[in-house]
Amino acid sequence: MSIDLEIAQAASLKRITEIAESVGVPTEDLVPYGWTKAKVPLPVLERIEQERTPGRLVLVTAMSPTPAGEGKTTTSIGLADGLNERNRRRAAAGEPATGNAVLALREPSLGPVFGMKGGAAGGGYAQVVPMEDINLHFTGDFNAIALANNLAAAMLDNHIHHGNSLDVDVRRIHIKRVVDLNDRALRGTTIGLGGLNGGVPREDGFDIVVASEVMAIFCLATSLADLRERLSRIVLAHTRDRKPVTVADIGAAGAMTALLRDALAPNLVQTLEHTPAFIHGGPFANIAHGCNSVLATRAAMALGDWAVTEAGFGADLGAEKFLDIKTQSAGIWPDVVCVVATVRALKYHGGVEKADLETENVEAMLAGMANLEHHLTVLREVYGLTPVVSLNRFPSDTDAEVAAAVAHLREFGVRAVPAEHWAHGGEGALDLADAVIAAAAERESGSGEDRTPRRSYELSDSPEEKLRKIASRIYRAGGVDIPSSVAAKLRRFVAEGYGELPVCVAKTQYSLSSDPSLRGAPEGHTLTVRDVRLSAGAGFIVAICGDIMTMPGLPASPSAERIDVDAEGQITGLF
Amino acid sequence: MSIDLEIAQAASLKRITEIAESVGVPTEDLVPYGWTKAKVPLPVLERIEQERTPGRLVLVTAMSPTPAGEGKTTTSIGLADGLNERNRRRAAAGEPATGNAVLALREPSLGPVFGMKGGAAGGGYAQVVPMEDINLHFTGDFNAIALANNLAAAMLDNHIHHGNSLDVDVRRIHIKRVVDLNDRALRGTTIGLGGLNGGVPREDGFDIVVASEVMAIFCLATSLADLRERLSRIVLAHTRDRKPVTVADIGAAGAMTALLRDALAPNLVQTLEHTPAFIHGGPFANIAHGCNSVLATRAAMALGDWAVTEAGFGADLGAEKFLDIKTQSAGIWPDVVCVVATVRALKYHGGVEKADLETENVEAMLAGMANLEHHLTVLREVYGLTPVVSLNRFPSDTDAEVAAAVAHLREFGVRAVPAEHWAHGGEGALDLADAVIAAAAERESGSGEDRTPRRSYELSDSPEEKLRKIASRIYRAGGVDIPSSVAAKLRRFVAEGYGELPVCVAKTQYSLSSDPSLRGAPEGHTLTVRDVRLSAGAGFIVAICGDIMTMPGLPASPSAERIDVDAEGQITGLF
């Protein structure tokens, strides 16, 4: 049995009503899903937002990761538990309170659960629970999203079948059907086969649900009305004379919103240490913005003195999109940014091969600092934010490596602390909590940076200019290569009125550049934009710079083969 | 706004905890889904089954219907409300109690909700509520079933992609992926396109989720262990040398069961009159057995003195499968069978055309009695049951027609009463409730038929012999035509060890025969078996006798276009 599942199943959970009461949400206001999960309805959250001052927002992001991941989710959970542990200790000692913390995280997709990577509910003693439920279709949000997406696709094909009065060009259909599984065989399909009663034949394919625009919309919507409005704007296809065909045109917006109505309320669960955690939404971090729902983040801010949330991938992708896209549509801005680093990722970016990452190598670790330092500099200089580095400790890290890393970063002028929440829960993240509290205090005292939201580009910039600014400021690129076919697509987006949308770059997370083999802090490279796509409902233009897989496949021996349930309903084999 | 939705939204619902307490299930034992829906965990049901005597079981079935449907679900709800209303009145009058009633019904599919037929939560003043939730993916059971089914399909294609060590023949794959929508364009597909990374190309297609074997299994399973065992047995494909490849062979049974673990607990809701109602599972009534889950029916029997449940289509299909398949795997047997008839269906079977069904025509109505009488005779003579006829009143029925129908049926020797639950709720079904109570009393006094479960065939009969017996006894057919290719498939099923499974006939519901234009009680016709399929996990052989659509399409103007949600979350346009 996996250690994570063992710890999770041994945990003693509080009733979700008790968790909610602890942050002032009465039981009557909850929509329970069992006794340890609940949705908090949007009218309740709106009322609380009006009544209370929002808490401070802490964004957890990371340096460019290794393929094993550096523990952003685990750190987010550990930090929130650490903030609450600090608050409890202060109270016990009769000292001034530091305030309570509430988490906001993404929901896991079933793709990795049944594939290779496993679940996404944290790990060790920094987990959200009930772990099995969260990992196994939870409160059904992803299914609602899949149904809404697939209803639009079915209605579009149905429209074509019944005469196609909108003159949809079957070669220019952009929406794909989705499923929340890794299902390689559905990447490329033909549909509508079988003659007169089987619809109109066309080339097609399926994506995983987290890659859908409906998922991105779900996570950016600020209300049910905003959700409906955004869904209406999705461009499903183009006509033969190149006019956009939207969800509104085929009359699907109302039914799609009806399918999503209940799902839109954020899900409340708890950490192993009973910190309230909103787990809601989970768009891809490449072709979408990679953050939990705006509503979950705002819910955490409404209920907590501290709200801890996370953005996918490294800071060049996750934090950039969080800051340039999500905060702006949500009307929020972080007070502190926690950048997760690991000794092994530092060594990796210092040139050490994967097989050697567990061998002590202070020199390589310091050489890899260039990557982390660049991310820190971007957060400070481009966005005016206050970063804190969490050095997420792994068993193979040596004390010498950790000490050298911390000393180096402090010299660089940033708060940096080792964190051991995986092994010790909130207690292992007390120093990190203190660093975050200190950074926020400094900022609030006026000695810190200014607090105005900033973007890395202006919305009035052309899409090309936006890409150039992101590439040079965030990726250290020397230039952007936009092939003429792609430039023509961008001109078309501008002509259709989408020129002022932000851009959402899909590229590798393993390098600042679009070449995963360029580690450290490469400079002067060229960002090649292979393709662009419009997400008119989500409200961004996706720039695809690399191989982006929107339907993963299962490995030769998928995790699903090892998952089981005994006659009493106890699940085994999840990790 | 539709009248059904208007009535449902105006209803005052009780807390589901209160509904559960009313039948002796403490709040602590429930798994709430919001405040008006809950799942009752299997261990709780098992405990109650051990503690209490099971209630009497009333099966609601129907004469051969018109395309508009005769109101089986509405009658089931009305009868349960009527039984409870009678019980309350007795108590109020200080008379001996007649016992409380609990419902067990199928969950609606989203296909008809967004297509043409609308929802399936009853109608008028005989509804289960919350109507919008029940009709719009409810507690997520169908999504869990779709995921489990699609995981098996993905793992099979993944196995083929990664070397196909089982030697699966891509031309002999039986499992289809499913979605809970009417999506015509997915009927015929090719998948695995796009080269090396896209899997292995093959011809494929999608079914609607209610047509899947996983759905049938879900509804026949008696425990989590039985569910896992049945899933393991599903034959997904055959190898090139014609050996079956099962779910167990590809290692998917555990993960499929994990996905279905929570879904397997029956969902508890209430009628407009607060009768407890289990709404759980919903397999097709043609290629599957068309009844709610065994667990829901047993839950209703455990908690009610009366359990009212329904079988899909007319009695030749629904009741036959309920009796020959479901009761036997569930270990239950009905005490009374309520056969729903309508004046318009009687006229239809008496030869009146659809457009003229609202015109009074006593003679035609009496001519159509042949159909109803045949169903009644089968229930009595083949199965030894006690039928009661519920004449479900429609506004266009004249008093003369109703009086003549009742008089005729009483002369035929059956209890027959008009019922007006659509217009008046339980009060409109008091006479029906009394008829059911009287029939059960008669049976229990020993003057009724014997109570031994019977099948219309023996399990030891060959599949051909089973079909011949069903055809002659239930359909009044003169013979069965089994083409040699179909006979060869049946021989293969027998050779593989499936010869003793019951058969599940898929044919039109509009006629006793397989020709929908043969109304009344046709005799001597031939049942042509076009194809047979094995559902090894569900435990039956499907005999396809007619055009069976396992993936419906949307009409030119689907209902989905008229469904909407306002900014407060109120849903409109459902019917």
UniProtKB/TrEMBL annotation, chains A, B:
It catalyses: (6S)-5,6,7,8-tetrahydrofolate + formate + ATP = (6R)-10-formyltetrahydrofolate + ADP + phosphate. Coiled coil: none annotated. Residues 441-463 are annotated as: Disordered. Keywords: ATP-binding, Ligase, Nucleotide-binding, One-carbon metabolism. Pfam families: FTHFS (PF01268). It comes from the Bacteria. One of its GO terms (molecular function) is ligase activity. ATP binds at T66, P67, A68, G69, E70, G71, K72, T73. Pathway: One-carbon metabolism; tetrahydrofolate interconversion. The keyword Ligase applies. This is Formate--tetrahydrofolate ligase. The gene is fhs.
